[in-house]
Amino acid sequence: MKKSIYVFTVIFLCLTVHSNVSENFLYNSSYDSTNNKVSSSSYLNSNDQSLNPKEVFLTFDDGPCINNTRKILSILKDNNVKASFFIVGIKANENPQILREISDSGMCVGVHTYSHDYKKIYRNLNAYLDDYDACYNVIKKLTGKTPSPYIRLPGGSTNLVTSKANINSIKEALHEKGIRYVDWNVCSGDAESHVVAVDKIKNNVMTQCKDKNFAVILMHDTYYKHFTVEALPDIIKYLKNEGYVFKTFDDISPAEEEEMIKLKIMNK
What we know:
With about 270 residues, the chain is of the alpha/beta class. It is built from ten helices and ten strands. The protein has a single domain (about 1-260), classed as TIM Barrel, CATH 3.20.20. Strands 3, 4, 5, 8, 9 and 10 form a six-stranded parallel sheet that branches. The chain has a two-stranded antiparallel ribbon with strand order 1-2. The longest helix has 19 residues, at about 125-145.
């Protein structure tokens, strides 16, 4: 019983604290902010129609950061693992070379937010779309590549920062543009505070991954997240030992997307 309460508490904190930390669309969304439309081409890996027995998507929010993102990239490279990075536009402008390194390393690069100012972003639908446009355009300008049509809403799609009516209008607008918003079903808890014990981060991931065949893990690569960096090698080792296949949103299949929707990780 205590274990169940603990896991619930961690998940709840990820849905609330994460929102206070500053820090069937088969499309490739080439978003045109001038006329608010999407020109689409096939994006999903339609050659792969099946699910692996166990799959994991490592995701990192709120970077790129000068001191931790490169360390995470190095760990991923050493372990021959890819991940998905949801970018903050202001941070990308501050660290353009690091953003390019993320992209050039074969990682998935998607929009998180430009400003990470929740009061500004969630003021209304147009404010959100302006913020999305700004982040999208920065990523495209600095990398020369179209950002992934898979994004992460600031605070997640069930955040308590804005009204239900407002977040629903944002979801509907994204839906119309062929943009997928992705949450998570495993929370590392690394955004609970600036200081989170390495063992706690590892335990959060391992506990929540238990009995899951499909996991999307939330982590962060911001300035204070050196504890995440320290925990990452053991997290990857654990996941490999458990037989997980590592995936990103750049090589997602229709079957994987369907599974995410069914599990309410995507577009819920």
